[in-house]
Write a structure and sequence with these properties.
The chain is of the alpha/beta class. It has 10 helices and 14 strands. The chain has a 6-stranded parallel beta sheet with strand order 3-2-1-4-5-6, with helices on both faces. It has a 3-stranded antiparallel beta sheet with strand order 7-10-11. A 3-stranded antiparallel beta sheet has the order 12-13-14. The protein is globular.
Length: about 350
């Protein structure tokens, strides 16, 4: 399919009217290669993909945005809808295509595409279908943008990030999953709500699998620099472990609640992924709990597995994993989470060759 860019060719016969509006300056040199534009590709224009695209546009994170999907008509409709808002947005060139050549030289490739679960279909069968989809998506992305960073958002995100790493053959630092970045945001919100403070003043992480075996790091939670649990103990303030478990349970179930109420999640993951894109492309060196290769980290030595731990993100991808303190119980739960993911991966290895 021929890709349709944002275009200034509006005059008769395709005349470029921009040349009529402006007088060129004498002696103009081409832009310096060190001042190159930023290009982001989003694969999949469902609710999540478009929420991410819209947030990227409003936060002015890209000079060029490419949307890729198998549905050509929906692609064009989404592009036109965004272009019609151009007067209210920072200037960004928007392209759409069903072909991956349009993604060439992307700085960041965000994958949201994936199959939906059919009635009666097992999670493993769904995962096998999604791995097959990734086998068609990832190799051309890697071929057209060999220096890009791949950010996986599709679920189950940890296993699909592992699949993207295998299919791309990229170094592990340039393949990242959105992981528990959003889970941790929900966690911070709930803690802030309990304490009646701003969520930005709460430092708290959910790690491990983005799913039922995730681990809440209660031992390292702080508010305004004050470690919460040790503060309660010093002040001899009693708390029930059940209360903490219920907060974590609410984090795990919150996405299901949103889906039950509105049919899908979109805005929160859009903002979450935009925050990751900003840290990566602007080399902010911020810490995010994202899905990364963790073999040999925190005592996890069961094999190559991707799961979430706080990692520093910059222009080269994941620059390192934070050596966050874990209690013995948290460390054991994290290892169990890793084993759970590895067991699923082993059932899919025949698809990853």
């Amino acid at each position: 399919m021929h890709k349709t860019p944002s275009s200034s060719y509006l005059g008769p016969g395709g005349l470029d009217l921009s040349k009529s509006f402006f007088t060129p300056l004498a002696g103009v040199e081409p832009p310096s290669p060190t001042k190159r534009s930023t290009k982001i590709t989003v694969v999949g224009v469902g609710n999540v993909g478009m929420a991410i695209a819209q947030t990227i546009l409003t936060q002015d994170l890209a000079d060029e945005l490419v949307l890729v999907d198998a549905n050509a008509e929906k692609l064009r409709g989404e592009m036109l809808d965004l272009q019609h808002a151009a007067a209210f947005l920072p200037r960004t060139k928007i392209h759409t295509s069903v072909d991956y050549d349009a993604t060439a030289h992307s700085d960041l490739c965000i994958i949201t595409a994936g199959a939906r679960q059919n009635p009666g279909e097992s999670r493993l069968d769904l995962l096998q279908r999604n791995v097959a989809i990734f086998k068609k998506i990832v190799p051309p992305l890697a071929a057209y943008s060999p220096e890009t960073i791949i950010l996986v958002v599709s679920n189950p995100v940890d296993v699909l990030t592992y699949a993207a790493w295998r299919f791309s053959k990229f170094p592990a630092n340039r393949v990242i999953g959105s992981g528990t970045n959003l889970d941790s945001s929900r966690f911070r919100f709930l803690i802030a709500d309990h304490l009646d403070v701003n969520a930005q003043d709460v430092q708290a992480y959910i790690v491990g699998e983005h799913g039922d075996s995730s681990v809440a790091l209660w031992s390292s939670i702080s508010v305004g620099g004050v470690p919460i649990l040790s503060f309660l103990e010093r002040q001899q303030i009693a708390y029930e472990k059940k209360t903490l478990e219920n907060i974590h349970k609410e984090v795990v179930e919150s996405a299901y609640q949103v889906i039950r109420l509105k049919g899908y999640t979109s805005w929160a993951i859009g903002y979450s992924v935009a925050s990751l894109a900003r840290s990566l492309l602007r080399d902010q060196r911020r810490i995010h709990p994202v899905s990364v290769l963790v073999n040999g980290v925190q005592g996890i030595d069961c094999g190559n597995v991707f799961l979430s731990l706080p990692a520093m993100l910059g222009r080269g991808g994941a620059a390192g994993i934070t050596n966050v303190h874990l209690s013995e119980e948290e460390a054991e739960k994290l290892k169990e989470s890793a084993k759970t993911l590895l067991e699923v991966q082993e059932k899919l290895d025949y698809l990853l060759c």
